[in-house]
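Notes from the 1:1 (GR / supervisor)

We went over the backlog. Supervisor wanted to see one worked example end to end before approving the batch request, so GR pasted a single chain during the call. The sequence is below; no edits were made to it. Supervisor asked that the structure be written out right there so they could see what the output format looks like.
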Amino acid sequence: MTKQPGSSAPAESDRPAPAADATGTGPDGPTDAAAGADGPADATHGPLPAVAPGTPVLALLALGWLVAMLWSTREVINSSAAGITAISLSAFALPGVISAALVAGAAFALFGVDLLARRGSDRVTLRFVAAIGTGLLVALAAAFAINLTYADNTTTNVIAGTTAAAATIGGAIAGARNAPVVGAVVAAALGTLLFVVAFSRARDPLFELFGAGDTQESLLGAAKWVSRTESLLAGLVAGLLAFGYLTWARRRAARRDAATPAPRWPAYLLAGAGPGLLLLLAEVIIRVGGRSLLDLAGALSEADAVAQTSLGTSRVDNGIWVLFVGALTAMIAFGRTLGPARSDDDEPAEAEAAR
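Structure output shown during the call:
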């Protein structure tokens, strides 16, 4: 039925209303479907690749730490008498060098793949190849420096080869797709290594505090409690640093691209446990690549054999403690940032208060 003249209802048009085009743009601008809740979406490229903030600083700090460990090990070995003492000291210094090489390879490789991500290249294969290649550069540089500056003895090639393997494996770790989590692991692991060295100054007072006396039993008991205290505090440091780095990365990513999803609890769990996992991985590298050096040191005397076995067990225990305490600390810190769960009953009250 047609509308009569003078009717209050407006006449309906016979032409259909203009529809939005394929890009989601209507006659009055972008439609809600195209804009989304978080702002305009990039239909061509999608969300920007996740990058780890502060990778140049992490790479410089990790490389500096590796250089410091290589230099201190060289000074200790060169200052000792050739032969038996050099072998023993090399075995004692090897874990510190391997841990530093593992973290340095991961940090430097993360810096390399971060440059690729910032250029918009986020292909998994290219990222992994770049990470391996960058870690290999650190490995070759470290091995060359060891062979060039260390005394020419039976331990030099073992230290150089094991260090190169650790740096290459660290580079492979940086090829993981979730760069902020890898950055958190590297930052927390580097902080943990620095803390362990700083904690060495507190070992003597703690020995007295835990009742170290003249008997062998009291010394062993005090050493056990000092080791547990060090591992507990190192785990706390690892968890807090991992949580802090991931929180910083999340805020940086939100300012860079509002559509970037915030990391969830598994990311914090893995970041907190990462330093402990790296310590355990370093122990595997030591026992495989440095097996011949450890056997030489253990064969020097019965006391050396007991010392090497005890130190290996202590390093494994320390890695396990750092793993679980770091993961638990990061999860607790993340949980404290979560607000109370919102229920459906809260929505009408919020809408009424907004009027």
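Supervisor's comment: The CA atoms of residues 71 and 149 lie 9 Å apart.
Batch request approved.
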